[in-house]
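Pasting as-is:
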Amino acid sequence: MFARKLSSMTLLALTVAACVGFSADFAFAQDDAPAAVTAATDAAVSTAAATIDIPMIWWIAPIGSIIALIFAWKFYGGMMEADEGDADMIEIAAYVRDGAYAYLRQQYKVVFIFFIVVSALLAVMAFVFHVQHEIVFVAFLTGGFFSGLCGFLGMKTATNAAHRTAAGARHSLNRGLVVAFRAGAVMGLVVVGFGLLDITGWFLVLTKVVPMFMPDFHMPLSEVTVVMLTFGMGASSQALFARVGGGIYTKAADVGADLVGKVEAGIPEDDARNPATIADNVGDNVGDVAGMGADLYESYCGSILATAALGVAAAAAMALGDPDVALANGMRFLAAPMVLAGVGILLSIIGIYMVQTKENATMGQLMGALGKGVNGSSALIAIAAAGVCYMLFNSNVLHGDAAGIVQWWGIWIAIVTGLLAGIIIGKSTEYYTSYEYAPTKHISEQAITGPATVIISGTASGMKSTWASLLTIVVAILVAFVAAGGRHEFMLGLYGVGIAAVGMLATLGITLATDAYGPIADNAGGNAQMTEQEPDVRERTDALDALGNTTAATGKGFAIGSAALTALALLAAYVEEVRVGQIREAETRVEHIITEPDDTRAMYLGYGKFAMKITTHDGRESADCLMLMDKDDSAFKNDDMSLYRVSAVDDHHRRYLDLEGQRYELVSAQTASMAQYMEFYDVTLMNPKVLCGMFCGVMLAFVFCAMTMEAVGRAASAMMIECRRQFGKMRDYLRAQGKDEDFVADPDNWPSRPVDFEGTNYPNYALCVSISTVGAQREMILPSVMAIATPVIVGLFLDVAGVMGLLAGGLTSGFAVAIFMSNAGGAWDNAKKLIETYGAITAKMFRDDPKVREKVPAAIRADIASRAERAADDYIVYGKGSEDHKAGVVGDTVGDPFKDTSGPSLNILIKLMSMVSVVFAGLIVKFAPVIGGFIGLP
């Protein structure tokens, strides 16, 4: 075993050294050589796709993605070779696995229809309205496919790992931890492997493969990055369906199982007598594994793609119109997030091998075991990032003004800032959700006065917890912006924010492993409970499960934090897509109107935009859109016959048009700065469109949460009714056996394995699985469609300014609400588990045993003593089965949709709004002014 581990580590270390060393040799060899800039480009950015020269260091990214998939397969194989346990453990695992597959099959049918409809709409936008590139609908499909594939593979691994984790816990705590964590690592490595492979694959197709077979295919580097960015909408859409549907499914089952099973019937969690138990375990897999995998897949890809797009834009802004310099520098800015992700994969694998613990470990020691892997990977990526930044951004390899503006150490500081922000958000989430710390202990103590005070204290704790994450993101944005060079070039500062998000997600391979570990450990505990394993096995799985609750909460906080930085980068990338949309609109209009390129004549498109046909640097015909910076356009005619004379470009990239004694300032869409776009679309707080868009963004976040919470409530209600019905049938079964009412009323006598009664097996696990499946499929559609449709509707009526407001409002409110809901839900869950750790303390035990009294929390010891004095000897005054425990269960059930449905779905909503806006930017650029003019909006 040790030799096998050593060989794997050696192979990985050699691979890292070979990749970095080869890239370093290449980079330093270039220091003394002229840049390999091939064919020229248009003024905006770039060059014919066929001549784009890829830096050698970039190949670390595809190599890293392939290594991730290789190790994912290795860990999967190792997990499958582990002991499966006894026949009962295998049987229960089969119920869960079959239910999970049944749900995913049904969900993918619904999602398939959605993707076909939306891809057809995107094809119409491309081929009929000409407002986006023709391959966008294909990119959309691939993004959704890989996102769904990652979720499926992660769920397949988890459903095979849970009972093996329980079987491992029969031998030792460490064996159970290693099985669960390595299975979680499969999820993490599959996500980063397929994500980076998809990104690098698309890049090679657009820049090398297609031009090889289609010599006339020309796509500027700026358009390559924007088109690649659009496949993130497919990933985000799939992630939203997976998160919302899976969240509704799992919480309907969980709430039903808890309230009817634990509170009403008084049977333990995950008890085989509870018909909703299997559905609950299935839900952990389809929600917390498949859903989280799809969620972080789109975060990972979105951050890399948005940063690449911003990097190309920043390079163009610093090139001052020189396309050769823009291309050479742009490729380096584009390569950086991809290379960083590739290196992060390799270092995540090293961190995975660091995770192990000793027998009888405390919660703190278990957290330390996982922390050793996560923190080790983070420290290594911080060191490696310095080397990557130096190779790509030292002054000897950059060209033009960028060599004096860009500081490699500034980009490195931005990366480390994102990395530290992720760690801080994770630690703050751990503090506010783990029962090792004061906030959750306080919530559990509030159970002494009933469920109302548990809910009040949990709500307050969740709200309070937002300060740490919000302040961390504020500081991270400012530091990354300034450090990257935002003082000298605004787009460079935004690039710093984007690459900070990449830094935060660079070690996603191991951070997602800690998150996917949670539901695996939870299912392992359920398997041990249902198969009536020895108490020490259950104690070990309980320890692993409690750790999993904290890591799951930490993972959700991490996902939400990364969403904030990614969404800000996407907000800036949206403006780049607006730029492309304007140029595409101009190209469509002038193609048949102006026969020969002429950069002195322009036709008016209406709404402050002019189109002209130009000759690019390499002799190709192209188009440009000129933005009228003056508000009054009444002197111009919007017809195909009127052409206007414009001046040549001055030193500040402006043109001028003289008409009827007045001079008008025009700015090219290809070279316009972010500030000029904000001025042209009047993106200011004094513009009602912006404010209305912000209110729409806030509204969407709250209405979305309300809809998903209500969906869980309706589905849980159906589950509770079915559980009560089946409990009644179990009692009838015992009566039919001639048992008296005292025997029938005792849940310990109910069947723990399905028995035939009136032609049906009870407990009927399959029926509860079906109820959750049908409820989730029905309830997930409206919130998901609303999230996708709102940015398009707001954009068409409020134009680009309204969309910017929508994204800002949705980002700020959605981020805060998501942190609040996730942390409050996690704290409620662990407060209940903290009470359970005391066992069942009877009144006699409390009165007679000083050690028992000392074990009860000091803050409530006097109240428990008063309760014990008045109670019968066998009355449970604290711990499992007590009134405090029941109050904790109520808090937990309230928190279930908070932390597993609405909260984590919000971070997808934040990014999906941005992705949809990017994809539909061309449509909004072309038609929103027309609609606005029709309804009287200026």
